[in-house]
Design a protein that fits this description.
Aspartate Aminotransferase, domain 2, 389 residues, 14% strand, 4-stranded mixed sheet, Aspartate Aminotransferase, domain 1, DegT/StrS_aminotransferase, PyrdxlP-dep_Trfase_major, pyridoxal phosphate, 38% helix, 3-stranded parallel sheet, pyridoxal phosphate binding, alpha+beta, 2 domains, binds pyridoxal-5'-phosphate, Putative PLP-dependent enzyme possibly involved in cell wall biogenesis
Length: 389
């Protein structure tokens, strides 16, 4: 019997194809595990004729609120929209100031600009990479209307001290929890400690839709009612619009998909935590700055980011070995052209600037196998050794 393998054998030497590349993130692997459930749900929505909001979105909102421990969840069409509406519902408007960080995804700051307010930056902490609480009070003025910390890479910001400042000065905290689904701060769900918490369900997030989606959570009944109205053209009853509204509704396909995926979020988060712990242990002896998990909280490892001064060389060398890496984020917000009018300069936020120069995100996703992680660790060890020659 002859077997056509496509592999050319010459003598004892066997030329094998190189192992498949390891992506930064593998959404296909997750989909394959859920295919039947998802297909059924999509067919149900398609035949229901309700394609925007509706029962699947409502069910997801209820389940997500329960999951994070909030009274209300309002589904919207993106994390950016969630932040925008949260700021409006908090009463932030033209001429106001909102304190936030330059080391984040740009959308945090977009939302502040959308309401006509000014982003006021404070640097991040050099170990946790979240808002440096010690710098906040010096930036508060009579115009400060909100503090908007970001739970960067899946680690909640120092919400205890931030809420203490906010409560003392009467300034609400709005949480950007777009990277922190299921994270906890002193036992409470990220997104539920501030007045509102904003989530993104962009496909690559820890809980990802198959398109755009987001949500706001809050304990406040009045804010929840206003958010429900604002996302849907501010209609209190059909054809009656109470204020300037938006079309920021979540669509039913995304609600159905998110409802299914939410049931797996805990297991996926535990897998992420195991992979992160293994990285931390196995990379400990290498000349890299590793991420840290602060005490009293639960990091959900949306991204596993290491710092090294020769980041670009390492990335290229890993790429050659079939290992995908990412950059989160190579240009801090205060140095973006779009925010040049804020008047910040290179050197203003040295911690964020260092992260921007040195950051490299390693592959980490719940379906990652042990042998994939072995390959990443071995490759990283090798490319760091090469650099020392
Ligand atoms: C993804 C993300 C957003 C924006 O969410 P979208 O759903 O992409 O609009 C906002 N803030 C942070 C920190 C994010 O990571």
């Amino acid at each position: 019997m002859t077997i056509a393998t496509g592999i050319i054998r010459s003598g004892p030497e066997v030329s094998l194809a190189p192992p498949p590349p390891i992506p930064l993130l593998d959404l296909k692997a997750q989909y394959l595990g859920l295919r039947d459930e998802i297909s059924q749900a999509l067919h149900e929505v398609a035949s229901s004729s309700t394609y925007v909001l509706g029962p699947r979105v409502q069910e997801f909102e209820k389940a997500f609120a329960a999951h994070v421990g909030a009274r209300h969840c309002i589904g919207v069409n993106s994390g950016t929209s969630a932040l925008h509406l949260a700021l409006i519902a908090t009463g932030v408007g033209p001429g106001d100031e909102v304190i936030t960080v330059p080391m984040t995804f740009i959308a945090t700051t977009w939302a502040i600009s959308y309401v006509g307010a000014t982003p006021v930056m404070v640097d991040v902490d050099p170990l946790t990479y979240t808002m440096d609480v010690a710098q906040v009070e010096a930036k508060i003025t009579s115009r400060t209307r909100a503090i908007l910390p970001v739970h960067l890479y899946g680690q909640p910001a120092a919400l205890g001290p931030l809420l203490e400042i906010g409560n003392r000065l009467g300034i609400p905290v709005i949480e950007d929890a777009a990277q922190a689904h299921g994270a906890r701060y002193r036992g409470r769900g990220a997104g539920t400690l501030g007045r509102t918490g904003c989530f993104s369900f962009y496909p690559g997030k820890n809980l990802g839709a198959y398109g755009e989606a987001g949500a706001i959570v809050t304990h406040d009944d009045r804010i929840a009612a206003r958010l429900r109205s604002l996302r849907d053209h501010a209609q209190s009853q059909r054809y009656h619009h109470d204020e300037i509204g938006f079309n920021y509704r979540m669509d039913a396909f995304q609600g159905a998909i998110l409802g299914i995926k939410l049931r797996y979020l805990e297991a996926w988060t535990e897998a992420r935590r195991r992979l992160a712990a293994a990285y931390l242990e196995r990379l400990a002896d290498l000349p890299l700055q590793l991420p840290t998990e602060a005490r009293d909280l639960r990091h959900v490892w949306h991204l596993f980011v290491v710092l090294h001064p020769e980041r670009d060389r390492l990335r290229d060398a890993l790429e050659t070995r079939g290992i995908g890496t990412g950059l989160h984020y190579p240009v801090p917000v205060h140095l973006q052209k779009a925010f040049a009018h804020l008047g910040y300069r290179d050197g203003d936020f040295p911690v964020s600037e260092r992260i921007a120069r040195e950051c490299m995100t390693l592959p980490l996703f719940p379906e990652m196998t042990e042998s994939q992680q072995d390959r990443v660790v071995d490759a990283l060890r090798e490319v760091l050794r090469e650099g020392r020659r």
